[in-house]
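User: Before I run my own analysis I want an independent prediction to cross-check against. Here's the chain; please return only the structure tokens and, at the end, one sentence I can use as a sanity check.
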Amino acid sequence: MSWNTLSDKQPYIVKLLTNSIRKERLAHAYLFKGNKGTGKKQVAIQLTKAYFCRAREASEPCDDCSDCKRIDSGNHPDVHVVAPDGQSIKIEQIRKLQKEFSYLGLESKSKAYIIEHADKMTTQAANSLLKFLEEPGQKTIAFLLTENPHQMLDTIRSRCQILTFAPQSQSELSYTLQETGYSKQLAQTAVALTNDQKEAEELLNDEWFVQARKNVLKLGEELHERPHRVLLALNEYWHPHFKEKQQVGIGLDLLLLWFKDVFLTQLEEEQSIVFNDCQNILSVQALHSSQSRVQQQMMQVLEAKRRLNANMNLQLLMEQLVLRLQEG
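Assistant: Structure tokens:
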């Protein structure tokens, strides 16, 4: 890993930190906040290597010395990583960390610690860490990583330099999910709904979502090919699957993506469509619909989303929507 590689994901963060390294103006504590998959821990590790590396050139650690190698392998005696023990980070873990820091550094006078999911500290653990942050050692650097900074004590946040990590782009997140083992079709659908990796994975691990996608594709096809049986289709497979308000909301979001794909196909921007496994059907609908009609259909779905938030009856909402979509 290098700063150049990390800069591809987080250019602003990398520029700020590398400048701080070169000018020797590192803070004693950092709070890295951002969605899962944005590179918070990788940046913390890279900065820790730069902090310890004795062969560093400007801001770049050498990656070859014993300090760099042991930090990469997680075996450096003066670098400590704390992660939740079960559902939370407990006070015993923070006390153990403080005890370790009471000893002189085994390799140098420097020490570093990384706390993953810092928002999951118990109240007692957070208060204990607060005292630690208030009296940092001269050669101590701390990294607190979180996806939920609002769940942390204000007093802890105020003692850290807070850096916000930009979310991954849709293409980056989709690639990350595919590397994890999810299909391209499902990954692209999930990231079209959220740019949060954790939320995307929750959707992809839910069989309900997989079936919801199939049902929406079926409804999109029925609206064009068999409009006379759309109301029957709602009773057959829509209402039994989309039972709750939140589920209907996801269904409407997927239906909106369908019409957006039709519109993109009309604009000959097929590389941007989400449902790339349905290109033939999308092409047929794009050919037989005007752009103005598809735009109107998208507006109808958006209006249904507005009415959904106004607590309209779910079945009536969908029945009225499909009739309006047919009218175009």
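Sanity check: The beta strands are 29-33, 79-82, 111-115, 140-146, 161-164.
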